[in-house]
Write a structure and sequence with these properties.
mainly alpha; Na+/H+ antiporter like fold; globular
Amino acid sequence: MVVLGIFAAALAAYELVAIRVEAAGLSRPLAFVAVGALVAATGIVDPLPGDEPAGVLLPLAEIALTLVLFSDASRINLGWLRQDYGLPARLLGPGMLMSIGLGTLAGLWLFDQLDAWECCLLAAVLAPTDAALGAAVVEDERVPSRIRRSLSVEAGLNDGLAVPFVLLCVAGATVTEGFEPGSFWASTLAEKIGIGVLAGVAVGVLAGELARRGRRTGWASGTSEQIAMAGIAVALFVFTEELGGSGFIAAFVGGLTAGSRLRRERTPAVAFMDEEGTVVGAFVFYALGMSAVALFGDLSWEIGLYALLSLTVVRMLPVAVALIGSGLRARTVAFVGWFGPRGLASVVLALVVLEEDAELTGIDTLVLTTLVTVILSIVLHGLSAQPLSRRYGGWARSLPADAPERGDPGLTDD
């Protein structure tokens, strides 16, 4: 209870001055990682009861990621994507694939204890970018709207898109290391992805239609609808997992489907989910900070170097290649490449692998590398978001109206 009490007090203190401290560059994830690390370093409580980080973080982390996947996906404006899909498609297509490939090569170079599948798994776990960590950028109106929207769409979709790659790599690693027969690969992927997609589509259509009817008939208030959508997202995750599918894929597809049904009403419908997800996510970062103090005793130079490469070369080089021919200036390409922060999705995916595939030879290295990369990202991206957005935004204002950065082809809601 002391752990929860400290978190609640820190949450109240932060939220009461949130605008001021965020303007100073202290993001919510950075603040709660720091509080958690301070709690562990001072020895006030035992940060890892039972020496099981996954046991402490996983249940809440899964709920937080489910809410994030559902709400982020439901917000994707398909009408805007149809009108200006170029930049998001480049980032989510070749950009993401090259990032996973380059991350795999970096892992093979640095980690003798990881095989090719485990290196690919590490790269896939670290592929998603975090919308919460990038909020300071995508909400800064000094940054051109087209760039902000592209980064927002990327962060909203790539966590869901990363899950099939994680499942593929886990299946490959377990087959290669002899834990499962070769048939496990195809059957597991088909079952998890197939059930997840079908459940997401079915529940998403039903949820969106019920929400629309509830509004028209007056059977549900705005608040009750928001609570219902959060309950639907969590129930969808749990029951899809029970059926043998991927709950994360179901939540992602369900959010996309429900959002397409709600259209302009999508944002009010998931407002409570955002608030709930923010609180649960803050606790995950708080627990991550507590865990870091104990876990960093096993830190090696290889892990530190991989984390640094993951945030720089492994992210920025694929983005630069993917944006060739887009017309964007070098400063914009560097800005987009840098702001690919790693956060909640990577933590949760790593902990899920730890919980379900603890027998993998390199699992400890994989999880520790992920946590180190996320913490480094929280610090570096959190501190750089405000000053770099200010400088980039000031430069972008000097661009001509027809510059690709400022292109806005009469975008409308779908």
